[in-house]
Write a structure and sequence with these properties.
The chain has a single domain (8-177), classed as M1 Pyruvate Kinase, Domain 3 (Beta Barrel). It has 178 residues and is an alpha+beta fold. The longest helix is centred in the first third of the chain and has 10 residues, at 8-17. It has helices spanning 8-17, 77-84, 131-137, 139-146; strands at residues 25-31, 45-48, 72-76, 96-99, 112-115, 118-122, 158-164, 166-169, 173-177. A seven-stranded mixed beta barrel has the order 1-4-3-7-6-5-9. A two-stranded antiparallel ribbon has the order 2-8. Helix 3 (131-137) packs across helix 4. Strand 5 (112-115) and strand 6 form a beta hairpin. 33% of the residues are buried.
């Protein structure tokens, strides 16, 4: 069955209908790692590593030096669910799906976030849609996440890096440290 891609109008109205995401305290909804091309695993818990990010994920298998500003790809769960249009969230391939506002105003670069026993930090690296994103979710979804007037909302997600390694688990609270 061919995945359904939402139109730009459907994405806009769906986004506007979402309840506001928490700004200071949220939760971790899903952890994902990609141990091989096309393979997705959703462990209930992992110990984040300062060098590898999510152990066993494709990012950690890249040759050194790796860009630590792209260590953990993070998406807002509600927005990901909207854009997925019935496809599993794992289709995106991001590492963490959270119930938290990811806008630049709420999480400027350098903001630290406590998740479980780990301390993470918002990086300045932009998380943009790509060729794979376009193929999976459609051209309108790519326009939706890259649109200049809402780009600061980080609809496509953000990158975090591990500051203090530690165990995280689905359901853990996220606390934005100001």
């Amino acid at each position: 069955m061919q995945p359904r891609h939402l139109s730009l109008a459907e994405l806009d109205s769906g986004w506007r209908a979402l309840p506001p995401a928490p700004r200071d305290r949220g939760s971790l909804a899903l952890i994902l790692r990609r141990p091989a091309d096309g393979v997705r695993e959703t462990p209930a818990r992992v110990v984040l590593d300062g060098e590898l990010g999510v152990p066993g994920d494709a990012w950690g298998r890249q040759p050194a030096p790796r860009n630590l500003d792209m260590q953990l790809a993070v998406m807002n769960r509600a927005l990901a669910t909207l854009m997925a249009a019935g496809q599993p969230l794992t289709t995106f391939g991001d590492n963490l799906y959270v119930d938290l506002e990811l806008s630049a105003a709420n999480l400027p670069a350098g903001t630290q976030i406590r998740v479980g026993r780990a301390l993470l930090e918002m990086t300045p690296e932009p998380h943009n849609g790509c060729r794979k994103f376009n193929a999976r979710f459609g051209n309108d979804a790519l326009k939706f996440v890259q649109r200049k007037e809402t780009r600061d909302q980080n609809f496509r997600g953000v990158y975090w890096r591990v500051v203090e390694p530690g165990e995280i688990a689905v359901g853990d609270a996220l606390e934005v440290l100001r």
